[in-house]
Structures are given as structure tokens and as C-alpha cells.
């Protein structure tokens, strides 16, 4: 799992990338103003699991890297490189886009169902009014 925090021009955004079972899932969390260390720790300790668990998408397939022993100096260089790297991986972008599309579909489905129920309710009210007018004769 990795958490990358960057400034997108307007807000500070955190990108969470989770690899589990060979699948990559990516999530976007907007911090707003520049987060302090305490706010980041609070997010990791209390809200991170909530963000991950609300996911509806299955994730993208990812090749697993072998767990070879890495030279400590090389590891230190890789960590420094990761810290300086601000961009989001394209796989993470794909995963976020996929989740966004799935949420969009579910929102549309709920909205359509709501409008159909409203239409049915109006139809029944119209029928009841017509009956009441007819009884009045």
C-alpha cells in the first residue's frame, strides 16, 4: 500500500494505491488545505480503512514483483526517488477511473428508480382524483 500526497493546483490530494490478490485498487482523498503531519496520521489511523472499504470496483490486474533482498544503499536511493516523484501511476489512474465509472452507473440506476417511483406515485394520485371527481356526480 502506498499513500502519495500532492498539490493539484487547487487542493492537496492523497492517492492511495492498494495491491491485494494481484489486483491494484486506487483511491483519491481530498485533504483541502495543506495537511499537517498530525492530520495525515489521523487520516491513516481512522479514515483510511473507511475509504478503502467503500470501494465497489474489483481492481486492475498487476504483475507481482519478486521479493528479492535489496541492497540497503539501493533501497535508500529508491526511497529518495519515490519521495521526489509526484506523479500518479497510470495503473492507479485507470483504477480510479474504473471506480468512478462504477459509482456513476450505480448513481444513475438509483436516480432512474427514484424517477420511476415518482412517476408511478403521480399516476396513482391522478387516478384517485379522477375517481373522486366521478363519485361527486
Can you characterise this structure?
Helices cover 55% and strands 20% of the residues. The longest helix is centred in the C-terminal third of the chain and has 46 residues, at 90-135. It contains 3 helices and 4 strands; from the N terminus they run βββαβαα. It has 137 residues and is α+β, with helices and mostly antiparallel strands. 7% of the residues are buried. The protein has a 4-stranded antiparallel beta sheet with strand order 1-2-3-4.
Q: What is the secondary structure topology, with strand pairs?
A:
Blueprint: E1 2-7, E2 12-20, E3 23-32, H1 37-53, E4 60-61, H2 72-84, H3 90-135
Antiparallel strand pairs: 1-2, 2-3, 3-4
Keywords:
137 residues, alpha+beta, four-stranded antiparallel sheet, 55% helix, elongated
- The average pLDDT score comes to 84
Widest β-sheet, arrangement of strands: 1-2-3-4
Low-pLDDT sequence parts: none
How far is the first residue's CA from the last residue's CA? 73 Å
Q: Could you spell the SSE succession in H and E letters?
A: EEEHEHH
| Number of beta strands | 4
Structural class: alpha+beta
Name the shape in a single word: elongated
Largest sheet entry: 4 strands, antiparallel
What portion of residues belong to β-strands? 15-25%
Amino acid at each position: 500500500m502506498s499513500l502519495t500526497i500532492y498539490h493539484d493546483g487547487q487542493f492537496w490530494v492523497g492517492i492511495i494505491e492498494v495491491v491485494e490478490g494481484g489486483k491494484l485498487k486506487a483511491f483519491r482523498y481530498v485533504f483541502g488545505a495543506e495537511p499537517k503531519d498530525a492530520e495525515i496520521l489521523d487520516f491513516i489511523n481512522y479514515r483510511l480503512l473507511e475509504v478503502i472499504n467503500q470501494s465497489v470496483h474489483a481492481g486492475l490486474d498487476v504483475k507481482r514483483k519478486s521479493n528479492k533482498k535489496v541492497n540497503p544503499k539501493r533501497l535508500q536511493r529508491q526511497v529518495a526517488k519515490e519521495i521526489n516523484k509526484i506523479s500518479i501511476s497510470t495503473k492507479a489512474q485507470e483504477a480510479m477511473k474504473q471506480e468512478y465509472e462504477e459509482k456513476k452507473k450505480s448513481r444513475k440506476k438509483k436516480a432512474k428508480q427514484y424517477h420511476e417511483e415518482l412517476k408511478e406515485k403521480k399516476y396513482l394520485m391522478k387516478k384517485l382524483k379522477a375517481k373522486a371527481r366521478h363519485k361527486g356526480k
